[in-house]
Amino acid sequence: MPFKLFDVNKEIPEREKHVYVKHCEDSEDSIACNTSTVPGCMGARGCVYAGSKGVITGAIKDVVHVVHSPVGCTTYGGGAKRYPSQPKLPNGEVFPVDNFNLKYICGTDLKESDVVFGGVKKLKQSVIDAIKEFPFATAIYCHATCTTGLIGDDMDAVCKELTEELGKDVIAFNTPGFAGPSQSKGHHITNDTIFSRMVGTKEPPKTTEYDICLIGEYNIDGDLWVIEKYLNEMGINILSRFSGDSSHEEICYMHRSKLNLVRCQRSATYIADLIEEKYGIPYVNVDFFSTEYCADNLRMLGRHFGLEEEAEKVIAKYHGEVKDELKYYKEKLTGKKIYIFSGGPKSWHLSIPLEKELGMNVTAVASEFEHEEGYEKMKARVKDGTTILDDPNSLEIEELIVTNKPDIILAGIKEKYLAYKYGVPSIMIHSYENGPYIGFEGFLNLAKDLYANIYNPVWDLVEFEEKLEEIQDEVISTPEEETTMEAGK
Amino acid sequence: MSGVNVLNRERNLIVNPLKTCQPLGAMYAVIGVRHGIPLVHGSQGCSSFVRYHLARHFREPVEIAVSSLHEAAAVFGGRKNINSSIKNIAIRYHPDLIGAITTCSSEIIGDDVFGFVDTTNKELKEMSEENEKYKGIEDIKVIPIPTPSFVGTHYSGYGVAINSMIQTVTKANEDDNSKVNIIPGILNPGDVKELKHIMDTLSISYTMLTDISEAFDAPLRPSKQERPFYPKGGVTVDEIANVSASRGTISICKYAKLGAETLEKSHNVPAITDDLPPIGIKGTDQFLRNLQSLTDCEISESILDERGLLIDLMADVSARYLFGRKVAIFGDPTQVTGIARFVSELGMEPVMVCTGADEKSFPTDMEIVAKESNINIDVLVEQDLRAVENYVKENEIDVLMGNSDARFINYETKIPLIRFGYPVYDRVGYHSHPIVGYRGAKRIAEMITNEVLERYYDEKHWKLQQ
Predict the structure, then answer these.
(1) What is residue A484's predicted lDDT score, i.e. its pLDDT?
(2) Inter-chain contact B104–A72, Cβ cutoff 8 Å?
(3) Which in A58, A444, B91, B447 has the greatest CB count within 10 A?
(4) What ipTM was assigned to the predicted interfaces of this complex?
(5) pLDDT tens-digit readout, B351-361
(6) Are the beta carbons of A107 and B105 separated by less than 8 Å?
(7) Which of A71, A112, A401, A405 to mutate to test the interface with B (most CBs of B within 10 A)?
(8) Is B192 part of a structural domain of the chain?
(9) CB-based contact (8 Å) between B207 and chain A?
């Protein structure tokens, strides 16, 4: 049977259909996903509001976020994700605060009386306060939370009224935390809101024949800047970013792009579909993780825009810079067992590159909130015997670690320290360790981090040995380069 | 003129809050129980945000279960979610205690978590009687903890959780076990360890309500790691059951003192809840006097030597480097009051203090500090980090003290930032070292002095020739 019931799941058999072991004759049944987490489990999933503010809108550099909530959701919405921005705006002006999106979070600080009598008045006053506090902000985004969803505050009406009153876009994101099984629902609502409220409302300062929108790229640790550099050197212009290092304005003229590239296909295909449907702008799915996917996709864009030679030049230059070093890391990482637990699609982006380009052995892949098509891709991109998990919980992660101990785990901060306690190193794959991880140099950074974490001398020192001879025996029997880090590599 | 100038938030908007929600405090408290599991009754974010927030501060696992409250529960109520969550945890983890922590959503939909827990307890008993493999699950203590975020703060949530544990677990007791109960509040492991050190040195036995000192600062020893994973250490359910036999309760955080009051009212355990915290000389002196009043202990020579070491350092540094320097302090009211008092003992001037919540006794406590040091203090109440930012940009401030969120104020203004409290995620080690006790104060004085030397002396290095 390809579906697997973990020992720790014996009492919650409904988890069986979420765990699949890749088999040469794959079952027709799809892996259960995008359903509510089994109550009482310790999972990693975030809420709908997190998917909106934390993932998509929080990356935009020049807007104020007013979280319509009691204090907690506002506090947690601040500075949570590592998506830097630079202050340059598309009209040539410079936004007065750099990394504004990482520095400030605002909220309505609702109290018990607001829950009883409604929070609309406070929301209105707070938006006015926000503009006084940050008069240079281009727009105000208001976020619904569990509380305001349940008390029924009509945020759309307030925001519409304020847009007229203030002469700036005030946009309501109706994302109460409970409104879906995971943050994925928040991505969807936010795509829809941005499309209906923003796209098509403004015109770009200028356009070219080589304009694209880079959709679903959030500039984690500077990822977007890597891709932007490659595209610019090829002669392709990013007209709008959705939403890493993006400005409010440029999202408003996404409809003027010539081609849309969808990078994170879980959180942002929605808006690409909507733009295609309404404005007839085609989109392509792109993948820039690893040297091979990156080169393939740059070539594909070269063919599309008639920039084949330019693409080859960029590939030769940047791939050339990392080739030799990657060879070294492949040697070191070959055969190392790795378990990838991503938020969304990174599990299927990275499974083949880690095996093919770094020689690693992917033993398990998992995702917090992928949907059916994502799991189909995971199935297609892992070898027989690999475990595929949807929304794994802490006990399952423990069982995976103990029964088939990996050399490293790619996961988030919630799993990282748990893995450590069982003696397994872990890299943060949502926000990264020393990124960027995308593109040619990014893949080298990932390889370096994998190496540094697996070969971290601490993992050879974890237990006290009673007798000195035992340690010396071990050192002698292990080839020297296996036990020591080589400086500068 | 000495006194305080209370400044309330003028805008409705909160910008970069200095407080967070009650459920976080409740989860914090439950993690301090041996084999205790926090179960948050809310949406996914209610667990995942807190796990993230605590994990980045402690760099430790933070295991929190969630009842997965979604639309259906919002319409039909969350009884099933709580019920199956508790069973799931009971069967798969076999814990000693489960904290059923409510949130904004579960409170607004009107879930009767107390009733749900009662029903579930009965069902656990039945399961245990009917099936050998479930034997023992009826002994798990399930604690309903009502903590919506639209009331109170993280530390009041901590207080509510402690109180709920006492109400559910503590039994009537005529014995005297000559222990002292300590309610630390949201303190770091290093602080809790320091309080233990003081009491160990004075040969006082104690119960920490609760004890996160090992859970959030745990050794990495895979060969000793139990499965399922539980954080190390913690107060046992048995100890909580017997806090009624103690000589008294000291609540370090006066804003989380509910449990101490309940013990006093229901079990005649004297409560000491209103003193300034044991930070700095006077604060720690008072803590020792309180311990003495409850236990008749003698203050040992070794503790007095620790005090002497601190005094020695203060004599070395305060007049020469620190005197008259203006300090702005922000964070939780307990720690802010204590730090403000200590920097004034160092001869510095805590000219501005700021907290995120409207605590009535905070300005009163700051008045004590203002009188003691004969200065005027701007007391920002129910304010936020933006208010701190604006204040330090408009006023002359030499030293800023607070959490990591102020790091961008530090590199914009070049005012040294001395980190303390929660959260500190951009430096390491802050959670494992104390700010309380004489040794904690010594560490603060060293940190302040070194930062002052680096910022105000290094350029004119000849001034540092001894």
Answers:
(1) 44
(2) yes
(3) A58
(4) 0.97
(5) 999 999 999 99
(6) no
(7) A71
(8) no
(9) no
Q: Within an 8 Å CB–CB cutoff, is residue B177 touching chain A?
A: no
Number of alpha helices (DSSP H) and beta strands (DSSP E) in chain A: 20, 14
Which residues of chain A make contact with B134, given a CB cutoff of 8 A? none
Q: Does pLDDT of A32 surpass 60?
A: yes
Residues of each domain in chain A carrying CATH 3.40.50.1980: 48-196, 211-312, 323-483
The angle at the Cα of B153, spanning A80 to B33, to the nearest 5 degrees, equals 85
- Rounded CA separation A103/A87 (Å): 13
What tokens were used for A488?
């500068």
Quickly tell me which residue has 């018990």 as its tokens.
A112
Question: Helix (H, G, I), strand (E, B), or coil: what is residue A182?
Answer: coil
Q: Taking CA B432 as the corner, what is the angle to CA B185 and CA B276, rounded to the nearest 5 degrees?
A: 35
> Chain B 386-425, CB below 8 Å of chain A: which residues?
386, 405, 408
Residues of A in contact with B221 (CB under 8 A): 462-463
B9/B55 same-domain check: no
pLDDT at B89: 98
Give residue-wise pLDDT tens across range A367-419: 999 999 999 999 999 999 999 999 999 999 999 999 999 999 999 999 999 99
Assign B325 to helix, strand or coil.
coil
Tell me the average pLDDT across B200-205.
98
User: Do B54 and B9 belong together in one domain?
Assistant: no
Nearest-CA residue of chain A relative to B219?
A421
Provide the residue type at B404 as one letter.
S
Is residue A360 within 8 A of residue A334, CB to CB? The reply is yes
Q: Which domain holds residue B140?
A: 22-169
H-only helix segments in A404-465? 413-421, 439-454
Q: Is the pLDDT of residue A489 over 50?
A: no
Strand A19-21 with A387-390, pairing: antiparallel
